[in-house]
Amino acid sequence: MQFQNSPLFLIKTFKRHYRKVKEVAEILATSSGSFSFKYSFQKDNMQSKVETPNDEATIRFVVLMRRFLDPASNLYNNHIWDVLREHFPEAIPGELTAQLEEFIEKLNKGSIPLVVNQQQVTAEDIYSIIANGDYFGKTDEEAVALLQNIATMPVVGHLLFFEFYSYNIALFNVSSILFDIMLRIERSELYGNLFQEDAATDKRCIYCLSEAGPFTSEEHIVPESLGNYDTVLPKGMVCDICNNEVLSGLDAELVNSDMLGRYHLDLCVKVSCKQAGRDVR
């Protein structure tokens, strides 16, 4: 368990999960429509609704972002930022530090000022209320009660869900900055000195049995293009020739298979939602 909190493990895990989230974010970015909040008022009747560019991709995006936004997660953005500042302060450009912290401060205030029971509710508060009170299972009784109370208010309930989605999108930008900072750190001399990989001990390709290598890449047991960013073999297990030439052709055949392609996105949504405790049928 201690290894799972090490800077090296957290950086690698964060980067893999970020690529998974980015894949869904790109689907949303290229979908028709956008995240929007609309309301109308006619003859003493006010109505409102929230629209998303792609409902299925939105669910998966929010579920995947949970690992970055849940304080209990080891990939929680604030926790990752603390780890990077603690272990690699000299490798982080000062302008990126200022940019990230200013961005986080603005985000927490939210785009729309909201006061409930004479108390200001921040964007982070709104995320917590909806995430804990409904979206990921009713685990927080106070959040559930507040959410149910808010849902009875005209317009306000939909407005909160719009803020909820907006917060996920905005915090994805924070995660993107953290990802860029990690790339800077990995190129630093400090990172190389701390996490220098073993030079050629017991390296042998499990496919062709060659010991000559080179061994510069990890091997995804299930192709990365099918959504696998976590189940990988370390460097030294598969040579670059097998990984990038022979096996890449097999990966392409699997990805382009009608049988796999038909169920790929639906399976990813259901697996991601199940891991986050959200029931999607």
Describe the structure in your own words.
With 281 residues, the protein is mainly alpha-helical. It has 2 domains: 3-196, no CATH class; 198-281, no CATH class. The protein is built from 10 helices and 6 strands; from the N terminus they run H-E-E-H-H-H-E-E-H-H-H-H-E-E-H-H. The chain has a two-stranded antiparallel sheet. The chain has a two-stranded antiparallel sheet with strand order 3-4. A two-stranded antiparallel sheet has the order 5-6. Strand 3 and strand 4 form a beta hairpin. Helix 1 (7-30) crosses helix 3, helix 2 packs across helix 7 and helix 3 runs parallel beside helix 7 (156-186). The radius of gyration is 22 Å and the shape is globular. Mean pLDDT is 74; it is low at 261-281.
Question: If you compute it from the alpha carbons, what radius of gyration comes out, rounded to the nearest whole angstrom?
Answer: 22 Å
DSSP helix count? 10
What portion of residues belong to β-strands? 5-15%
DSSP strand tally: 6
Low-confidence stretches: 261-281
Average pLDDT figure: 74
Number of domains: 2
Estimated helix fraction: 55-70%
Quick description:
The chain has 281 residues and is mostly helical. The chain contains 10 helices and 6 strands, in the order H-E-E-H-H-H-E-E-H-H-H-H-E-E-H-H.
How do the helices and strands line up, and which of them pair or pack?
Layout: H1 7-30, E1 36-42, E2 45-51, H2 55-69, H3 77-87, H4 94-109, E3 114-116, E4 119-121, H5 123-135, H6 141-151, H7 156-186, H8 189-194, E5 219-220, E6 232-233, H9 240-255, H10 258-275
Antiparallel strand pairs: 1-2, 3-4, 5-6
